[in-house]
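Team,

Forwarding the record for the chain on the shared tracking sheet. I've put the sequence and predicted structure together so nobody has to dig through attachments.
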Amino acid sequence: MTHPVVAIDVEDPESAASRACLDGYYRTLSAMIGEPFDPAASLDPERDALRPPLGAFFVARVSGDAVGCCALKGSGGPIGEIKRLWVGDKARGLGAARLLMTAAEARARELGMTTLRLDTNRALTVAIAMYRKHGWREIPAFNTEPYAHHWFEKTL
């Protein structure tokens, strides 16, 4: 049995595929944390920080369908942030999350970032395990994200 190929593309964060992935992220997160996720209450990144030359927005596709996303938020400095990593059911088990993170880390290096940070909710245990497995270390809170319980950092 062969697995479908996961392709990673850079998209504008306002594209239809990006918006569909973000909607999937919000629905999935709401279900996992047991309450509605409100992007307006969150530290939702400004879209320009997710576009070149500051950052990038990545969309994972399987057979042409958008099935996951990951945002690289930049500020023009050496520290960037990973936001909105999500993989839908269609792509679970295909390594899409790892491919998205690898693409974001590579782009961060290209943009001159030397450190990446992220925050996450305690309900996202699979994501937390993946971060730890791939060299992210837990650090003290670096923001006031109301949905975050864990903060991580990785030196590139």
